């Protein structure tokens, strides 16, 4: 349960905290989970794991009586509505009985508070007759979705509370990733659509800005086919980032995109620069005769060290003089 379906929870914690998390070997009686990383990141990862454990200790299962005539409407086209309710309620499980059973018992399983919240949403859907009410859509580029959703779903929650309409974003299974569905009473849907379109127009408001980055750090961003820049752009709404051409001594980096996207990208780039500035270089003198042993077959040993401790290790070229060797036998931390 801590690892999550397909390792989702573990992957999310690792990515958000930049830590290494190790579980006991399969079959082991140990219940110790080892977390490695910066102190503050380790503490954050520990708290996230403990939160999951506390939630698991509070798992309940409850049956709700709902007439089968509402099942199809509650589930929604392609299961969108019911999945939206489950996600909104902390990922609870909602199971409808098989059609042939004619049972009116719907089972909800999850943390107690989330189960109660899901139960209320199901009953509200029926009571307000939103199931057979108005439906409309708006289109937005997938890279905009995280800004439409907001931090921890704050923007979507605000729209729902102010209009009463439910906003459903496309899932990985949807062919058209741009369609955002709005369900509710007609006037509520129209208000929600207007708010969404206003938000999309703001995101569409492309601007150009710049950030100063010391040229000595440029290589980190553009190396390996610009992998770092690609991840920043992907995480920040597709913002375009342009570094000075090779040979140009300038610290001016230009960003182009939606204002919010640019600010998010600049913040991430500042964080990376701060990490680079905090790095140090130490020299470790090792007789060249031992280099192959330290590196291992095809460099497997040194690769394991660099991976585990997130450092760079550089060995001198064979045949270098002692002076050259002392200059190049360095470990970048």
Automatic annotation (TrEMBL):
Which Pfam families does the UniProt record give? KH_1
Gene3D superfamilies the UniProt entry points to: K Homology domain, type 1
Tell me which residues make up the K Homology domain.
1-54, 58-127, 132-201, 205-274, 278-332
Q: Which InterPro entries match?
A: KH_dom, KH_dom_type_1, KH_dom_type_1_sf
Residue ranges that the Swiss-Prot or TrEMBL entry lists as coiled coil = 35-62
Q: List, alphabetically, the SMART domains matched.
A: KH
Q: Which GO terms describe its biological process?
A: regulation of gene expression
Alphabetically, the GO molecular function entries are: mRNA binding
The cross-references to CDD domains, in alphabetical order and at most eight, read:
KH-I_Vigilin_rpt10 (cd22413), KH-I_Vigilin_rpt11 (cd22414), KH-I_Vigilin_rpt8 (cd22411), KH-I_Vigilin_rpt9 (cd22412)
Q: Which residues form the signal peptide?
A: none
Assigned keywords, A-Z: Coiled coil, Repeat, RNA-binding
* Protein name from the UniProt record: K Homology domain-containing protein
Which organism encodes this protein? Answer: Bracon brevicornis
């Amino acid at each position: 349960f801590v690892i999550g379906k397909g390792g989702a929870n573990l992957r999310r914690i690792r990515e958000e905290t930049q830590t290494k998390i190790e579980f006991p070997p399969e079959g082991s009686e140990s219940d110790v989970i080892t977390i490695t990383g910066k102190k503050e990141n380790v503490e954050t990862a520990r708290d996230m794991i403990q939160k999951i454990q506390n939630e698991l200790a509070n798992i309940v299962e409850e049956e709700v009586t709902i007439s089968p005539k509402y099942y199809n409407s509650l589930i929604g086209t392609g299961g969108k509505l019911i999945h939206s309710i489950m996600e909104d309620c902390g990922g609870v499980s909602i199971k409808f009985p098989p059609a042939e059973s004619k049972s009116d018992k719907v089972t909800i399983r999850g943390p107690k508070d989330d189960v109660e919240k899901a139960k209320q949403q199901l009953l509200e859907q029926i009571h307000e007759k939103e199931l057979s009410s108005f439906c409309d859509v708006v289109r937005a580029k997938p890279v905009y979705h995280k800004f439409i959703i907001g931090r921890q779903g704050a923007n979507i929650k605000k729209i729902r509370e102010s209009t009463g309409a439910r906003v459903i974003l496309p899932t990985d299974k949807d062919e058209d990733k741009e369609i955002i569905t709005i369900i509710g009473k007609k006037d509520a849907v129209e208000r929600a659509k207007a708010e969404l379109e206003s938000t999309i127009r703001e995101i569409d408001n492309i601007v150009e800005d710049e950030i100063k980055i010391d040229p000595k750090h440029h290589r980190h961003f553009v190396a390996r086919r610009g992998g770092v820049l690609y991840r920043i752009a992907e995480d920040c709404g597709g913002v375009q980032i342009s570094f000075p051409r090779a040979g140009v001594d300038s610290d001016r980096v230009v960003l182009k995109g939606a204002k919010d996207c640019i600010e998010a990208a600049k913040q991430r780039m500042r964080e990376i620069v701060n990490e680079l500035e905090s790095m140090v270089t130490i020299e470790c003198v090792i007789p060249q005769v031992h280099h192959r042993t330290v590196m291992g077959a095809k460099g497997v040993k040194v690769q394991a060290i660099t991976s585990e401790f997130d450092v760079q290790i550089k060995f001198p070229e064979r045949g270098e003089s002692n002076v050259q060797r002392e200059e190049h036998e360095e470990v970048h931390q």
